[in-house]
Design goal:
The chain is about 75% helix and about 0% strand. The chain is mainly alpha-helical. Helix 3 (about 40-50) packs across helix 7. The N and C termini lie far apart (about 45 Å).
């Protein structure tokens, strides 16, 4: 599959996920299950994008631009759903910030490797980006930033897919730790379904043929803030 097809799958899954998240009393829970396809595919393709781009600086600037554009829509759309404050400092930032930090980790790693070719030195700025992901509470936290970086740092395709499966499980690890140590809640059938959906991204990534497909770059950038703005518009209509 081309990156275009994989992106279509990812944004469709994201739309279903967010629709259920914003309107939990209207749409079925399986929307959230399907939504688990989105982030691992985006993480994989962001890393692939940095492998092929001729201008990583422009790539990063676009990610940051849409992170900033999307943030007010993100805060408004998810204020009730996940407790994001409508105003205030970053307390739970949108996923474009995750993609930007992951891209910055890749950019810094490449910069150091191109000049000094010392992996132990190149890993340090990448580690800082991973730390910032947790400190700033971006979507998927530090694990999301590490996911993106790992998809770039692991060069061999088969090994990368194994690491991808491991990162998918790492995202879900806290659910099991809390449940099996007597914490609040328990692992449910839905949790297992979400894990299975997340792992389904591995064969999808394995089917990537290295081709871009239809050149609709700006559509995929714009889709995120536009669909969040659409949720905001629905809220306004329901409030009147």
């Amino acid at each position: 599959m081309s990156s275009f097809i994989i992106k279509i799958i990812a944004v469709s899954a994201m739309l279903l996920d967010h629709t259920r998240l914003v309107f939990p009393d209207v749409f079925p829970l399986w929307f959230r299950v399907v939504g688990r396809l989105a982030f691992p595919l985006f993480a994989y393709l962001i890393a692939e994008g940095f492998r092929h781009t001729r201008s990583p600086e422009r790539f990063l600037s676009r990610l940051l631009l849409f992170a900033v554009i999307s943030e007010p829509f993100f805060r408004y759309a998810f204020a009730d759903a996940i407790g994001v404050n409508t105003f205030g400092f970053v307390s739970f930032a949108n996923v474009f910030f995750t993609l930007f930090l992951g891209g910055t980790a890749i950019f810094a790693y490449r910069y150091v490797m191109d000049r000094w070719n010392v992996a132990s030195l190149a890993i340090l700025p990448a580690a800082v980006c991973v730390f910032l992901g947790g400190f700033l509470s971006v979507d998927y936290s530090w694990k999301g930033v590490l996911f993106i970086f790992a998809m770039y740092a692991v060069k061999k395709t088969h090994t990368r897919l194994v690491v991808m499966a491991g990162m998918c499980l790492l995202i879900w690890l806290p659910v099991f730790v809390i449940a099996f140590t007597g914490g609040v809640g328990a692992v449910t059938g839905t949790n297992y379904a979400m894990i299975a959906a997340t792992l389904l991204t591995v064969p999808l990534a394995a089917s990537y043929n290295g081709k871009r497909g239809y050149p609709m770059k700006w559509f995929f950038y714009a889709f995120y803030p536009v669909h969040l703005a659409g949720f905001g518009g629905v809220f306004l209509l329901l409030a009147t």
